[in-house]
User: What shape does this take?
Amino acid sequence: MTDKKTSWAKKIKFEDINEPGTYMADWSGHLLRFPEDSLKQGRSPLLDIVGKETLYVTKISENPYVTLTKARQMAADLDCYVNF
Assistant: This one.
């Protein structure tokens, strides 16, 4: 479902998030928002999750402020588990 022209709808490791946007936590269905400011060099991470298993997220939008209704629809369209 990923296409090379878009940076959304791609599955990546949680620790590899380096672009602002709205992501789905593949392990729980929770919505994760990463505004541009949260990813700037030299900033402390706003969230750090540590565990034995690799955690994956799916980027559903380049807009970190997409509405919940729209985010639910986008996630459902990508067959993501929605839990928000």
Notes: The chain has one domain: 10-77. The radius of gyration is 12 Å. The helical segments are 68-77. Strands lie at 10-13, 21-25, 31-34, 56-61.
